[in-house]
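Figure 6 in text form: structure in, sequence out.
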């Protein structure tokens, strides 16, 4: 643009009015005649949850699908299966915790459970103890809800929840 020219910015008022008329309204088209209106609406809303799962699969802090470090189709399929299985298991943990009143996102659930470690303690006399690392109140509650203390006991571990 030349010297002395100015830039004009405006708003298309007709487009704004058209947008306002349909603001908050969504038309859903389907060929699924076997579904009720409520089922179609629920399926549309569930779409957001599926999209959220794909975002979580691409989140490197949750269950990261990328980078794929495989070259054969078979190994890539197995990698994808393991990633989806891991995400499914995390979602099941989240569901179990939600049922008991603990509402956490997947990243926080993973962050809370990741530092819990199994340790071996050997006394001077040679006696061996298996212990689970110190757990916070939230981790202890999560352990109880998910019945992880039963698994630890089966392995011969003693919980250190001091």
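Output sequence:
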């Amino acid at each position: 643009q030349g010297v002395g020219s100015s830039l004009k910015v405006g708003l298309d008022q007709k487009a704004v009015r058209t947008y306002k008329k349909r603001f908050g309204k969504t038309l859903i088209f389907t060929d699924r005649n076997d579904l009720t209106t409520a089922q179609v609406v629920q399926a549309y809303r569930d779409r957001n949850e599926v999209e959220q799962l794909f975002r979580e699969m691409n989140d490197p802090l949750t269950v990261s699908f990328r980078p794929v470090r495989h070259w054969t189709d078979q190994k890539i399929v197995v990698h994808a299966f393991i990633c989806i299985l891991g995400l499914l298991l995390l979602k099941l943990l989240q569901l179990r915790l939600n049922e008991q009143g603990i509402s956490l996102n997947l990243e926080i659930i993973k962050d809370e459970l990741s530092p819990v470690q199994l340790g071996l303690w050997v006394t001077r006399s040679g006696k061996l103890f298996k212990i689970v690392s110190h757990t916070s109140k939230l981790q202890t509650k999560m352990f109880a809800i998910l019945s992880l203390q039963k698994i630890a006991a089966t392995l011969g571990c003693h919980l250190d929840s001091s």
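Caption detail: Strands lie at 118-122, 128-132, 157-159.
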